[in-house]
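Q&A log
Question type: sequence-to-structure
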Amino acid sequence: MSKKIESFEDLDCWKESRKLRRFVMKEVLSRIPKNQNYSMSDNLVRAARSMTRNIAEGFGRFHHGENAQFCSISRGSCLDVLDDLITCHDDGYISDALLAEGRDLVTTAVKLLNGYIRYLRSITNRRGPGRVTEDSPEWDDGYQQHRTNS
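Response status: OK
Response body:
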């Protein structure tokens, strides 16, 4: 039995994107020279933060199609991080091992995002536009039950 998703924090794609963001912040940024802070470092930070932010924002939308669109943006940010990691490696800032670790984190996050996007699109295709309302089971916070029992 799968766990009920109550928050974007419950999504595996968000959890893996968070791991990638933390990897960038803790393992990569300190290796980039200070004179690159406003180019490479800044871009890495923005892309890494964009991954989790877009998943969170999409989760808060009332249409599954909108959620999928935000997750697609998150997927693009993951690949932006990978390109920056490759550039950092090419410029000699990070080792082969760090690049490989980052690549693995990106691959896992993108695979999970692809699966979640497929799921969201399948719901949209089955149900039409896929509008989620406050009384939909996808967005049940117990409020409706509490309100009817009062």
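Response note: The chain is about 70% helix and 0% strand.
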